[in-house]
Amino acid sequence: MTSPSSMPHNVHISTHPCLRAKLSQIRSKDANARETKSLVHDIALIVACEALASGLTTISSGTGETPLGYAYTTETISPQVALVPILRSGLGMVEALQTLLPSPVPIHHLGLFREPTSLQPVEYYNNLPYHRPTFSSPSNNTLPNTNPEIAILLDPIIATGGTSVAAIQTLLEWGVRKVIVIAVLGSEEGLRRAAVGGGKEQGEVEIWVGGCDKEVDARGMIRPGMGDVGDRLFLTIGK
Fold first, then answer.
1. Distance CA 198, CA 132 (A)
2. What is the per-residue pLDDT for 59?
3. Residue 139 and residue 21: Cα distance in Å, rounded?
4. pTM of the model
5. 3-class DSSP state of 40
6. pLDDT, mean of each 10-residue run, the chain (239 residues)
7. What is the Cα–Cα distance from 37 to 210, expressed in whole angstroms?
8. What is the structure's pLDDT at 141?
9. Residues 145 and 175 sit within 8 Å (Cβ to Cβ)
10. Contact at 8 Å (CB) between 164 and 172?
């Protein structure tokens, strides 16, 4: 496992003991689909707790009353966020974030796959509501700006980093101020690439990950890694 101190300042590798134990469990070839789903959920929840403690703040949202009749000040999170899982495997992390967040938030989906020969990302699905108005599309100027300030990008694996970079750039171009990437496992190469993928002039990027392995193999898979999480979650191994 890579030391957190050796990575860029915006890459945060968890040292939580329970997470590290669960990461060992999910690496095993003997973990079935149900166990894999549960472990992805648990690891995502721990990483998200750490990420959102740093990335969000609380603000007063009014007053409430306890069962004993005492008044208290209510609080909620700030700023506005949206969840963006990368299909397919990012879907396995959504429930963990929904459990953690105090109220429902929008969920948008990005579909990207890695071309087997070049290992470059290819986008096949994007349901972001709309893109910010530009000079080339004046008709969009009549649309209100409801973009969240922070997009929480969910992808269990950051191997070569190409998919993360493509997704980060899409989200920054969409108009968010900051992208928080939450992952279960990454490689050194992939995390370093994702950390600067958006370009500092476009917006802020923070990477939060459960663990980091040193390298990827010729197929672009993390070694030792944990295999293809999407295949393990959806029982499509050998497709």
1. 17
2. 96
3. 53
4. 0.89
5. helix
6. 78 97 97 97 98 96 96 96 96 98 96 82 89 46 64 97 94 93 97 80 85 94 95 84
7. 15
8. 47
9. yes
10. no
Give all strands (DSSP E) within the chain, no chain letters. Answer: 11-13, 57-65, 71-78, 81-87, 110-114, 121-126, 150-154, 157-158, 178-187, 204-213, 215-216, 222-223
Single out the residue of 63, 7, 27 nearest to residue 156, CA to CA: 27
User: How far apart (Å, rounded) are the C-alpha atoms in residues 82 and 61?
Assistant: 19
Please report, as a single letter, which amino acid is at residue 197: G
Q: What is the pLDDT of residue 137?
A: 45
Whole-number Å distance between alpha carbons of 233 and 39: 11
Structure tokens at 17: 């003991």
Longest dimension (CA), the chain: 65
DSSP 207-232: EEEEEEESEE-TTS-EES----HHHH
CA distances from 198 to 40, 71, 207 (A): 26, 45, 12
β pairing state of 81-87 and 150-154: parallel
